[in-house]
Each structure stands twice: as C-alpha cells, then as structure tokens.
Amino acid sequence: MKKISLFFLLITNFLFAQNIEFNVIVKDVLTGLPIEEVTIKALNTNQGFLTNKAGEAVIHLTQESPLKFEHFAYKSYIVKFSELDKKVNEVYLESNVKQLAEVIVTKDHPQEILQKLVDNSLQKITIPINLKVYLREFYKKNDQIVFFNDGLINFQVFGNSKNIKNDILVEQNRSVGILDEDITEELLGYDLNNIIENYYQFKYLGEILTSKAKKNYDFQVVTYPNNENYYMIKVSPLLEANGILSDFAIVYDNTKMIIMEINSMVAANRLEELRQSFLSSNKIFKLEFRNTFQLDNDVYYLANTKEVIGFEKKHKKKSRRIEVKNHMVITNFDKKIFDYTDKNVFKGKSLINKKTQFFNNYWDMESGFLSTKEEKEIIDQLSSIENP
C-alpha cells in the first residue's frame, strides 16, 4: 500500500470540508419529552448522527442537506434544510405506538423468513467500504462510572460476505479515569477487530436460527407502523425455556428483503430469576444490543450500534458489578477504502489501553453523537483524576 500520511490526510479533510453547524433537539410531539437514539441522516451527503438522552444532536454538514429522522417507535420525518435556520432547532416526531402492530399469517415459518433475510442481507451488504466511526465507551463499577474512552476510527472493511476482514485506523482518541486491574479488555465480551464481522454477518442472530430455537422461542411476524414497506419479526423466549435467552425484534424491508434494524435484550425478570446463580463466578447480568442499517441508493451499510454488557465477578474475595456501554455512530462512509501502511493499523481489542492523542475537540465537532450535560460533567470529573 502507498505510504500516505494518515495524519496529513485527516488534517487536509478537516481544513477543506465545508462547515455548516447547528443543533437539533428531537421531542415527542404530544408529551414534549426528548427522544433518545433517533438516527439522523443527511440525505445529500453520507453523514449520520444520533440523538443523546436529552434528544440533542449537533449537526456538522459538509453541504446543505435535508435531514431524515428515524426511530423504531416514531414515524419517520424529513426536514428541509431551509427550515433548519436556528442555532438550536426543535424537531417533533409523532409516535406510532397508538397504531397497534398486527400479526401477519405467513406461509413459511417466521424463522425460515428470518434465515432468508439473513442470506439476502449478506448478499446485499456493501463490501468493500470505509466506515468512519465515532466510538465511545462508559465503564461502571458497582453502578458508578469510573472510566470513559472515545475515538474517531476508520474501519476499512474488505473481503466478502463469507470472509469479512477489516483493518482499524484510529484518527484520534482519549481515555479518562482509572481502571482497576480486575477490569481488562479480555472481560469485555467484544473485540473491535471482529465486531464489524459479527455485525456484517449477523452472527448475533445465530441463537434463534438453530433448529432447537423453535423449542425455546415464540416467533411472530407483525406489521411495522412506522413504515408500510417494513415488517418486524418478534422472537421471545417461552416461559418454560431456561437460560439467558434474549428477546429480539428484527425490522426488515419486506420489498427488498433486507434487515434494517436488530434489537435484542435479556428481560429483567429473566435476569432476576437467574441472578443468584451469578454471584459465584463471572456471569452476565445485563446484555443488550442494537444494530441499525441504512440503504443509501446502492449502498447498504451499518448506521449505528449500541451494546451494553454487565457482569458480576469476584476480585480479592469481593463481588463486583462491571458494566460497559458501547456506542458506535457511523458518521460517514465511502465505497473506496484509502491507502495506509501496516504501522497505522490498530491491533488491540479495545481502546482502553491506547494512549490519548487528539488535535481538535472531535467529540463536539465530528462525533455525530453529543454528550449530555451530565455526561460531560462526569467526563470532566474523570479527567481530573490522576493515575497513581
């Protein structure tokens, strides 16, 4: 590969990009309450954004563009660029909860439909692709945040759907707080070097695609009020089934037969029943994830993700609750991957041990995911802590 300076490339792109900046706050039209994790897509560019807990997002555009707002519980909404003329723009979404989903009777078993969706999505997923990602992670110990890291990353994805490969190029990153020796990257449950492979090959759906799954889960296909072209497959553990079994909701485009969103979590009541058996070893007490995909003309790609992993482990004869929350927002993409050298490739499993290095406030300027006021205060507090 050509030896192009990654730092020079990033600086050049930053200096010459048009800078249109404003904020949006997304709210429920009836309650006026903020809506978290709304996917915002700039229709004239490849840029993506995500609202935080306060419903806020900072929008940095490279050119004028209308914005499309999407959330599984609300009707999609497009706002013209000319209407986004304030420093802070309020956008209201209409809930689709009042529109009840209807069960659809299908010729094929819903699990068979899901397998067809996975197979077709694998054929349609765009490879090669460069995903420009803002990644952030909060670490909790005994329900208190003790560490934070984030970074701008390029995932260079190549190969094919059966053999996905990727190289990670870290543009900028920061880490604040202190991690005890009992919190190591081996315990986190995910690996940055295979996380895209897992998402792009839909491996997290594996547990509900086995023949045994029909004995443990109930499958239903229902309408999706947010979009008449979309359906949803709901997969729920049967009451008599044992183990850490997740609830799934898979949203798909019924005309193109591709997966648009995957939501999964282990129900609180199921975790509570199993909790006592967790206390003696490193066992999961919280597990959830969400993948959202976008189809932009001929490009089918990952738009944003969330993973939450919680586990209890013993350290020095004391039980500790460790929780990690990971968000990834794809802020831009390109079907062409750029040249780089092997020395630029990040080989680690996590950013937790990578030395802090940044040249601008990327978390406010390029992240696509604005921290709330409370989160910023926590990050500032952690920044003031000196490592012993």
UniProtKB/TrEMBL annotation:
Signal sequence extent: 1-17
Keywords tagged on the record: Signal
Domain of life: Bacteria
Protein name: Carboxypeptidase-like regulatory domain-containing protein
Lineage: Bacteria, Pseudomonadati, Bacteroidota, Flavobacteriia, Flavobacteriales
